[in-house]
């Protein structure tokens, strides 16, 4: 092959591959979206156990191996981040137990229905209604609370005793009976409950719990299929956080370091929220020196990367235990497994899978941030985003309407084409050199032409 031609082919090839990158991102398919959370589904469970139903779900859709969630890696803060695209400091649901110093109100998981705690943000189920559609929910944290003066159109009051089957049944009923329902949220407590009770390292118990979770995914696909929704609606299955093994040997007892009369505990482990009753710097010093596996921060010094500082509900001193360590005041280990630790730890990350007309088929992505899910969902639903901390650019390639090519694939194709063309050129020249005395009329002419161009090849 002519060397100039080789360069031309390479350039053309590179250009054509690059050009598909700049797509028109207009989304026209506003199919309903069902968002499902299986609490405490650590990302790497996918590698250690078998999930035939979940595998079927994402092999025909999208799988994201790791979702970098928000600090603190607890259930309520992360479910609200998924629904708002905001870090905890910006949406106001900062922990399982909170205290507001201005109003002197308390928040606990069993007394969470005061709108005051939730109104610093607007969750997607409210935005969907503001856009003129209906939203429904089955026990997703916050969906039974009046937020911005609304609950979802249909919802179930939180009750941990209600089975997955019943929650799913109600959601599919609401979705299939009414076209104007555009968003549904479904929450289930497993495998979080088993992870806390037996510890994630108990593979016998985890295998049992994860088999049930996978069966529930199978039930979900079956029910959507039966109601004619499968393949027509978009479904996202994800989780709030992971889980790590705790141990009696990794216990931090505050009573060994500070007098209980010198502080109030708002939340305890693995991230403690502390209100000092003595000189804060004195208390801070004692807590800092308490245990090498626990870091103490004055509120102002909490690392920026945690996005856990700018809110009245964050207490003056925060203690953060190392992975797998437990903070108590005295006594033994409360739970064999826990979460809440630094959100840079892989053990704290969940996964994400998606299926439906909006999503690519067989697409796999290494990681996204959990705050990036919100702008993606708004895009799928065709509703405006509220200000948030995510970026649609990070997740858009999961969508079938977005023309994306992986940079790695582009580079791979270009290198591959280059190798093939170089080899062909080389073989071609070799052949020609082998037949110098050829009687073919044009042989000499070709060789001469090549000689002219030799400098190009040097
Ligand atoms: C994308 O395409 C649609 C229809 O083909 C068109 O109406 C719209 O203006 C385009 N948007 C952009 C940003 O080019
Ligand atoms: C629930 O929280 C509200 C507001 O923080 C408080 O006024 C009320 O007393 C709490 N109820 C219970 C039963 O603790
Ligand atoms: C959910 O569905 C069941 C029937 O399966 C029904 O009895 C129950 O009232 C529903 N719950 C809500 C909150 O609508
Ligand atoms: C897992 O938990 C079960 C039930 O408590 C217990 O019998 C078993 O020994 C545990 N296995 C491991 C490996 O910890
Ligand atoms: C949906 O139902 C049809 C007919 O019963 C079956 O062939 C198909 O495999 C089902 N699909 C899923 C995803 O369950
Ligand atoms: C804790 O502080 C109180 C009040 O300052 C004091 O009476 C008590 O002896 C202290 N306890 C310990 C164990 O130091
Ligand atoms: C997160 O988003 C909110 C709302 O736009 C904004 O106020 C806040 O500054 C953002 N946080 C960061 C770290 O950018
Ligand atoms: Zn939990």
Structural features:
Gyrase A, domain 2, binds zinc ion, 2 domains, globular, 458 residues, binds 2-acetamido-2-deoxy-beta-D-glucopyranose, disordered C terminus, glycoprotein, blood coagulation
**Total domain count:** 2
Helix content: 25-40%
Residues in β-strands, percent: 15-25%
Please name the CATH architecture of the largest domain.
3-Layer(aba) Sandwich
Hetero ligands: 2-acetamido-2-deoxy-beta-D-glucopyranose, zinc ion
Overall 3D shape: globular
* CATH fold label of the largest domain: Alkaline Phosphatase, subunit A
Distance between the termini: 16 Å
| Helical run tally | 13
Topology, number of strands: 18
GO molecular function: bis(5'-adenosyl)-triphosphatase activity; metal ion binding
Keywords: Blood coagulation, Cell membrane, Disulfide bond, Glycoprotein, Hemostasis, Hydrolase, Membrane, Metal-binding, Signal, Transmembrane, Transmembrane helix, Zinc
Family: Belongs to the nucleotide pyrophosphatase/phosphodiesterase family.
Protein name: bis(5'-adenosyl)-triphosphatase
């Amino acid at each position: 092959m002519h060397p100039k031609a080789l360069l031309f082919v390479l350039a053309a090839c590179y250009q054509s591959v690059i050009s598909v990158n700049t797509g028109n991102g207009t989304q026209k398919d506003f199919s309903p979206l069902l968002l499902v959370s299986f609490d405490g589904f650590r990302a790497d469970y996918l590698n250690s156990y078998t999930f035939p139903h979940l595998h079927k779900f994402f092999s025909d859709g999208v799988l994201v191996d790791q979702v970098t969630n928000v600090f603190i890696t607890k259930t309520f803060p992360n479910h609200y981040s998924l629904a708002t695209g905001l870090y905890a400091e910006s949406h106001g649901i900062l922990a399982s137990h909170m205290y507001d110093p201005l109003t002197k109100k308390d928040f606990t998981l069993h007394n969470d229905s005061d709108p005051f705690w939730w109104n610093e943000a607007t969750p997607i189920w409210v935005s969907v209604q503001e856009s003129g559609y209906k939203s429904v929910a089955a026990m997703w944290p916050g969906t039974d609370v009046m937020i911005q003066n609304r609950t979802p159109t249909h919802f179930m009051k939180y009750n941990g005793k209600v089975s997955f089957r019943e929650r799913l049944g109600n959601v599919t009923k609401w979705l299939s009976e009414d076209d104007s329902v555009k968003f549904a949220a479904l929450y289930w407590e497993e495998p979080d409950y088993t992870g806390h009770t037996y510890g994630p390292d108990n593979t016998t118990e985890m295998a049992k719990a994860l088999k049930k979770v996978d069966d529930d995914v199978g039930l979900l696909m079956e029910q959507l299929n039966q109601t004619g929704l499968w393949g027509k609606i978009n479904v996202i299955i994800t989780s709030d956080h992971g889980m790590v093994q705790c141990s009696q040997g990794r216990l931090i007892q505050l009573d060994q370091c500070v007098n209980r009369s010198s502080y109030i505990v708002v939340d305890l482990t693995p991230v403690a929220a502390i209100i000092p009753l003595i000189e804060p710097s004195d208390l801070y010093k004692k807590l800092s020196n308490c245990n090498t596996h626990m870091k103490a921060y004055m509120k102002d010094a909490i690392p920026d990367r945690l996005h856990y500082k700018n809110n009245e509900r964050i207490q003056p001193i925060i203690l953060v235990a190392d992975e797998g360590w437990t903070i108590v005041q005295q006594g033994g280990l409360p739970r064999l497994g826990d979460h809440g630790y630094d959100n840079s730890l892989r053990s704290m990350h969940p996964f994400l899978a998606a299926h439906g007309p909006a999503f690519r088929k067989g697409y796999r992505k290494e990681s996204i941030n959990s705050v990036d899910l919100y702008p993606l969902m708004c895009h799928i639903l065709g509703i405006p985003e509220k200000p948030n901390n995510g970026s649609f650019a990070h997740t858009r390639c999961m969508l079938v309407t977005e023309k994306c090519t992986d940079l790695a694939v582009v580079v791979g194709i270009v290198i591959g084409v280059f190798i093939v063309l170089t080899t062909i050129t080389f073989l071609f020249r070799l052949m020609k050199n082998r037949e110098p005395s050829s009687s073919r009329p044009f042989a000499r002419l070709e060789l001469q032409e090549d000689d002219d161009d030799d400098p190009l090849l040097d």
